[in-house]
Amino acid sequence: MITIEASKKVCSPRQAAQLSRGLTPFLYQAHHAVGLGYPATIRVAAAVHQSQCAQSLTPCSGKRSFSTTGSNQLRDVFPIKDTPYIRQTPPAWEHPGYTEEEMRAVVPGHRKPETVGDWVAWKLVRLARWATDLATGIGRDQQVDMKNPTTALVAEKPLTEAQWLVRVIFLESIAGVPGMVGGMLRHLHSLRRMKRDNGWIETLLEESYNERMHLLTFMKVGAPGWFMKTMILGAQGVFFNAMFLSYLVSPKITHRFVGYLEEEAVHTYTRMLHEIERGDLPKWSDPKFEVPEIAVSYWRMPEGKRTMKDLILYIRADEAVHRGVNHTLSNLKQKEDPNPFVSEYRVGEEKRKPQAGLKPTGYERNDVIG
Ligand SMILES: [Fe+2]
Ligand SMILES: [Fe+2]
């Protein structure tokens, strides 16, 4: 990274406001990523510091850490358009929130495949993991024990921050697809068959919304380059169509597939947490690193609990919910069973209401439907 002296510059109130939203004003090229063979894939954001001009709304000058990255890359990735009447647009689905204990209770887990459909889903996810490892440039020494790929956490060598970002941005761009496809197809089914859906659609759409919030959050930490954008574009084209056909043919196997995919997500974030805790990812272990404002407001992260580690705890808990929801939905009768996660239980049966995040293998039909 090359440090240069920033020229004197006056911040307009609007620029200052944008900066003060806790964005990442100082982006630099991930040099270690270049060394690993990811030259055009991602730029990692430096620790987010509120700039002096943002705090004071006055002319600012001074030393800043810039990279050789073009000035256009220093802009906010999602600049808010000023509108005459609208002040802000809050999220349509409020995050339910978690306690610290709930987030820490999440553990990687694995549901053993039982049926042929389970095996198909499991093997497809193995294939996806292999392709992702290959695309992320994960070396043999960075692999965990592949006999227990969704529960083993220790590898000889950690991933770099750039590798993590490539991985999570790619995965989150994919993870938002199945819920939307499932929700859309169930919505259309309800319309054309003139039947009730019993609460599945909202949960599936909310899941895809939540995944998109994960993606938007990571986009504030590091912005992908043209190569990765192209990969994401191609992957979405293939994955959307595959999910569409798969959900039409067998929603049961598709939910199992998503359940296994979410096992991978919980594993990914648990391993990332370990590496942050061990200090293997120095920028993200830095107490001065502040998570983006979009994350603070979406998860309502309390003051003093806004480090990268806190953020990953929230995201991992979300993934654990998706894992439990999809494994459970796969165990249900797809056309007739109500969604137990949004249902009210009869008096005396309330304890049967499932808590998705707590059950890595999902709930069996007999336990939640009867
Ligand atoms: Fe996610
Ligand atoms: Fe997920």
TrEMBL record:
The keyword Transit peptide applies. Its cofactor is Fe cation. Its EC number is 1.-.-.-. Binds 2 iron ions per subunit. Fe cation 1 binds at residues 172, 211, 214, 319. Keywords: Electron transport, Iron, Membrane, Metal-binding, Mitochondrion, Mitochondrion inner membrane, Oxidoreductase, Respiratory chain, Transit peptide, Transmembrane, Transmembrane helix, Transport. It is found in: Mitochondrion inner membrane. Pfam families: AOX (PF01786). Gene3D superfamilies: Alternative oxidase. GO terms for molecular function: alternative oxidase activity; metal ion binding. Its main location: mitochondrion. Fe cation 2 binds at residues 211, 262, 319, 322. The keyword Nucleotide-binding does not apply. It comes from the Eukaryota. Catalyzes cyanide-resistant oxygen consumption. May increase respiration when the cytochrome respiratory pathway is restricted, or in response to low temperatures. This is Alternative oxidase.
